[in-house]
Amino acid sequence: MQINSVAELDVADGIATLTLDSAPVNALSAAVRDGLDQGFRAAIADETVQGIVLICAGRTFIAGADISEFDKAPTGAPLHDVLALIEGSPKPVVAAIHGTALGGGLETALVCDYRVATPSAKLGLPEVALGLLPGAGGTQRLPRVVGAEAALEMMAIGKPVRAKDALAMGLVDAITSEDALHADAVAFLKTKLDAPRTRIRDRTDKIAGQDPALFDAFRAKHARAFKGFRAPENIIKAVEAAVTLPFDQGMKREAELFWELFRSRESAAQRYFFFAERQTAKVPDLAADLPEIPVKRVGVIGAGTMGGGIAMNFLNVGLPVTIVEQAQDALDRGVATIRRNYQGSVDKGRMSAEQFEQRMALLTPSLDFEVLGEVDLIIEAVFEKLSLKQEIFARLDKVAKADAILATNTSFLDVDAIAAATGRPESVVGMHFFSPANVMKLLEVVRGAETDPQVVAAAMAIGRRIGKVAVLSRVCDGFIANRMMAPRMAAAQALILEGPLPWEVDRVMLDYGFPMGPFAMLDLVGLDVIGWDAATSSSSSVVEVLCEMGRWGQKKGGGYYDYDDKRRAAPSPIAEQLIRDFAAKTGVTQRAFSDEEIVARLLYPVVNEGARILEEGVAIRASDVDVALVYGYGWPVFTGGPLFWADGVGLAKIADALEEMGHAPSPLLRALAEQGKPLHQYRSAAPAARVIE
Ligand code: T1G
């Protein structure tokens, strides 16, 4: 019988089956919680029912609380009450799991007597990714099932476990067949109808005598990864409560720790980011029913660092790649680098030898440009020189299939100027990968003035297919992420002439949450590759003099820092003296800067550039910009990204500070500040066709 719009209860042969059906992921919305509440009450009241199966229709078991309801007034049956009802059932209950039982979904399964899962199912408590902790008993029940150490890993790291691992941990009681979950769950339950029942909350075997040293050891092991995040520490505290307090007191402690997180700016930021990341796929003027351009074979032009990394993305998902170079030695080097990368994964146990061979078998190195006539998507990844790219695209125009997608990996050149070298600009699109291309999640898809919407949609789709977060950009200098971060580098290089030294600036950026400071990053990338030209260098800046001195960074043993033979960095007295000398020439009085001032100096101009990108319609929406900076530059996700963070700082404060720094605040920033509207919710008007100063 239909319980409500998302829950149905059927009884057969003494077994009640409560089926939830609430697309897209059976999240614990008010309707779902009401369905559970009413469904279980009906099943418990039905005297013919001896046992209850909880199962979901659609793609997955319950994937957690409904995050979209978090900031709304609560309605429907409270989750804790629903879980208490299930846990108090006088009849045994089995959770039949497929897809992903996550967060509140797994917590619901943990109040059932048993859990059975399909082989492909995954189970996890990933609330930490939302800046939260499992707030429906997960921190108290999971340790009682799998022990404190495994529970800490699952909750503080947030990675789901596969069904077979869950079976080994005792988190599930049986693995069913992939396509007979319900029948197998019923059969399993029938074997348990007379079995003695022990609620997880009453178990102590897995937590008794837990060595308290575990917790500080876990903190120490993950100190670097948890830096700046609040949720992991609260999760550790909740598990400590689970192994030291009676269950009900532990639940009270969990609630305290949960609500502390829920009210935090960090969790608001990470909940915002969860949806922001998914919004990037939604391009307003791309019809949802655009026929997809099939991509079955990929060509990559250039076997250098970027070309090789790009090729690996496609090999990793089983797509054949033809990689083309001009010279045999370059081609051999490129293939050897890919092989070495994969071998490294095999050595670290992240890839099997078979997978290694499968990937390499899909790679076809070639010196023959003509072979690109057989592929569906061609990505050019050669040196950043416009004339060279135009020459390549002119050749592609003659060689590529009529419906091939012609993509350039350029990081800042004018995609329209490249497209103009062909007779088919509608087939040309930017696909800007970030180095290392096989690791970084951001892919900027750059839409040229004439790029066909189908080509844009195909580039976005193939980006998702290779595991990237694809963000759409219009043509402008630096697109979104590089354009946004250029002002931070400029501000940093200006600031070291006023007092703070590179290592102090880098420390403040590390404390803010970046994985690396701007000067350490410059030394890593190489001072010489960020636009230094020996022919025209005129000792006009610190970075130019460093380059002229051959201090190109890590690869030369020194740049802003000095490096030992293990590339360990130390502040460089040479760089410091050079900076002092330059500062003296500028006549600027050196002074100490607070960390807050350094953050403002470096990051407010970034926010301003983001507002300009929105004014110009280069990005579709502010949240896309935040996603690009988090995934392109490691902007700490617990801030939500630069524009979400700016709203927390205050737009008027930022605009005023920019003026004091001598920057012109973007009109959009000023307008939103005056209207009291948040920047991170801004959506561009009709995106501009192209923006080139
Ligand atoms: N709430 C609301 N909407 C959700 C959702 C959720 N928990 N999970 C997914 N969606 C939407 C998503 O926005 C998208 O919508 C669509 O579903 C498909 O998602 C009490 C407090 C389940 C592995 O953190 O990890 O439980 O864009 O594109 O790649 O202790 O979604 O189509 O309109 O990601 O196949 C804990 C979050 C919540 C799981 C599927 N649970 N979700 O991945 O599809 S907090 C989570 C995921 C909690 C308790 C606490 C993934 C997925 P649209 P998708 P996918």
Describe this structure in words.
By secondary structure, the chain is an alpha/beta fold. Helices cover 45% and strands 12% of the residues. The chain has 4 domains: 2-263, 2-enoyl-CoA Hydratase, Chain A, domain 1 (Alpha-Beta Complex); 298-475, NAD(P)-binding Rossmann-like Domain (Rossmann fold, 3-Layer(aba) Sandwich), CATH 3.40.50.720; 500-586, N-(1-d-carboxylethyl)-l-norvaline Dehydrogenase, domain 2, CATH 1.10.1040; 599-675, N-(1-d-carboxylethyl)-l-norvaline Dehydrogenase, domain 2. The strands form 4 sheets. It has an 8-stranded mixed sheet, with helices on both faces. It has a 7-stranded mixed sheet with strand order 1-2-3-4-5-7-10, sandwiched between helices. It has a 3-stranded mixed sheet with strand order 6-8-9. Helix 4 crosses helix 10 (231-244). It is globular, with a radius of gyration of 28 Å. The relative contact order is 0.06. Residues 24-25, 27, 63-68, 100, 102-104, 107, 126-127, 130, 132, 134-136, 138, 275, 278 line the site of (2S,3S)-3-hydroxy-2-methylbutanoyl-COA. Pfam families: 3HCDH, 3HCDH_N, ECH_1. Belongs to the enoyl-CoA hydratase/isomerase family. In the N-terminal section; belongs to the enoyl-CoA hydratase/isomerase family.
Give the SSE layout:
Elements: E1 2-4, E2 7-12, E3 15-20, H1 30-45, E4 51-56, H2 79-87, E5 93-97, E6 100-102, H3 104-110, E7 114-117, E8 122-124, H4 138-146, H5 148-157, E9 161-162, H6 163-169, E10 174-175, H7 181-190, H8 213-221, H9 223-226, H10 231-244, H11 247-262, H12 265-279, E11 298-301, H13 305-315, E12 321-324, H14 328-347, H15 353-361, E13 363-366, E14 377-380, H16 386-399, E15 405-408, H17 415-419, E16 428-433, E17 442-447, H18 453-465, E18 469-474, H19 481-495, H20 502-512, H21 518-525, H22 542-548, E19 561-563, E20 569-571, H23 573-586, H24 595-615, H25 622-633, H26 642-649, H27 651-661, H28 667-675
Parallel strand pairs: 3-4, 4-5, 5-7, 6-8, 7-10, 11-12, 11-14, 12-13, 14-15, 15-16, 17-18
Antiparallel strand pairs: 1-2, 2-3, 8-9, 16-17, 19-20
Helix pairs in contact: 1-2, 4-5, 4-10, 5-10, 10-11, 12-25, 13-14, 19-24, 19-25, 24-27
The structure holds (2S,3S)-3-hydroxy-2-methylbutanoyl-COA (T1G).
